Fold these 4 entries.
Entry 1:
Amino acid sequence: MANLLGKLIGIIINIIMIPIVLILAIPIGILKARRAQKSRLLFTGAEQTLLGKAQRTINMEEYGLLSPDRDLLEVAKCIESARCDYQIIKSRERFDSTFTDFLIPRINNCHVVDWNNVMRFFELSDYAQFEENFEFIEDSVEKLIQGNIVEDKLKVSGGIRLEEAEVDILAIVRDNKVVYLNSEAEHLFVIDKDGDEKLDGRVVNFVFSGQLEGEHIELFVAFDDSDSYTMFTLKMGIMERLNYVAQAIFKHFVAAGLKNIFSTTENYFIQYIYTFKVYRKNGKYFMVNNSQTQAYLIDDSSIMRDDVDKIKSAFWSKRNVTKNFV
């Protein structure tokens, strides 16, 4: 009798729970569906409008009777290229950055004469991020033009610290010639168990390749250990962080009016090569990746690359007692 009563109570409880479970399951299912739909939506309505204008401008150049304004076409191609790259990245990995944030550094590198016309046509003033960045560019472009005089060396006292991005520049190489070497980087290094000076973090090579004149600029940027661990070990926000630093690099050199780095008449393609461990000895920086398939050896006048064994031998040799290796 007791068993029968227990089964009866269990059946009653199950019957009562069915509508409760259904009531709870429906909104949860709807919420999951909305989240899935949102994740599939790569572009907001405003971003889709922006992409549509860019595509129409490109089509006008290819099929129209009249060619579009050069500045508009330049930015339109930049937007379309960014769209392709963004979709590829989103399809391969988790990437939380919005398309607008992803696009900003690309547009910043466009060579545009009349920004006001570009802002009006693409309605970029609707984006707070664009408005802030373009106001900065317009206010600073004259300073950059005045400072864009080619010299053998970049005249900077001490190190170059990008406070906004929280990174340090160890070296700058332009067309395979060293134009800057950070001479005040002691605080970035620690002594390892073998007694060698080792960077407390990792280095990324930011490569800016000119599309018009073919100039090749490399900035070796040091990220601290915490930043490096988050990006390159946990694989969190790598491209978002690197894009942000690339934008900070451009801002820094414009604001400082530093010479012999970026040309105002060039359109740059940016590539990130990472990551490298860094050792320092007698005024030289030895950078090598984890697999030891790529390395650099840089002093204040020369750079060695490609031949990893030769570079390792040159750096660790007992004859490495002079400041320069060539």
Note: Residues 136-150 have pLDDT under 50 and may be disordered.
Entry 2:
Amino acid sequence: MFSAKPVPLTPETDLDTDLSIDDLEAEELMEQYFSEFKVDKGNFNIKKYYPETPISWNIFKKTEPVLVPDFTIGMLIESAKAGRWLYD
């Protein structure tokens, strides 16, 4: 078997790209985060960070990559300090 190299957790660590957390895991994590740290979720929407990706059945047509904003540990830290989600 192979072992994955541990990712150091810093404020810059991205939940999606660095930790490979999928949308369902992230949604559950965020619900627990809002509850545990008593952070007002405001307009938080997981789809902002995990949007639907277009699928094409045409193998000759490339789909454009979907650009998504960063979703980092630092964002969670700063929002917890503020008591509300800061990144609507």
Note: The chain is about 25% helix and 0% strand.
Entry 3:
Amino acid sequence: MINKTAKNTKRLRRAERVRYKLRQTSERPRLVFNKTNRYLTAQIIDDAKGVTLVYATTLEKDFPKHENSKKSKSAATELGKVVADKAKKAGVSQVVLDRSGMVYHGRIAAFADSAREGGLEF
């Protein structure tokens, strides 16, 4: 049986290690993707200034409706498009993807691919 606490602790350690390396590159803001049990969130953070430039979540009222849920792969694809659109309006074109220690697969890959199609470079 997998110890859930140990699994989450390892993920958090990976996330901190990667975030430390990403913060060293201050010329590009971080695109942070996070998934919860119910929703998906994404934000673009400028670490040099400590400011969130763009924020989007599947919880927003104007987010497109999905037949499955607000945490599905199709919702992640739509979230990537929304974040890319908001980033264009904010004048951000180049970012660094922060996966929060999660594997680049499934919802994260769908989100990243749609954000790239929307015009973000990473």
Note: The mean pLDDT is 89.
Entry 4:
Amino acid sequence: MIIEKRELEQLPERGEIIIDADGHIAGRLATYVAKALLERPSLRIVVVNAEKLVITGDRKMVIEWFKRKISEWRTHYNPEKAGPKIPRRPDRVFKRIVRGMLPKKNMRGRSALKRLRVYMSIPLEMLNRKKLVLYEVPLAKLKVKPLAKFVTLEEVWRNIDFAAWEQWKRAQEIWQKRIKQVTGG
């Protein structure tokens, strides 16, 4: 995996860039992605390792917020409520965060969102391509601060929808074996 560090001003005008989201704070990375999509109409952005994105805040508070939002969906007791659906999977959560930063009611925002792809882990066809790190916010820096509290999107997903997370984890193990076979490692 080749990692290249760049700032937002140094991004190419067209083509496709792959951003490794490992250890990034979800909101900060989303602002960079949204701004790049709006400023460069011929640039496609692919974000990989979405499950390793970080949400800052107390672990229990963040998980309870997601659980509360999901429980506000239509229920047996309140069948009339059909409010906004909150995604559970980390890739969809990040895409939803970016969508909130784009002007989705006009054509520019909708086309920008169509040019964004978000994946959990790294797809096989993108293994040997250059990954881009926009800025340095590793988990180690978050752990150094004594009051810094954070939770990864994978942990949130595990606490919200354990069955789906467990199924993904099993598929991930099979995927890792396949990658080793393909790369010869």
Note: The CA atoms of residues 15 and 43 lie 5 Å apart.
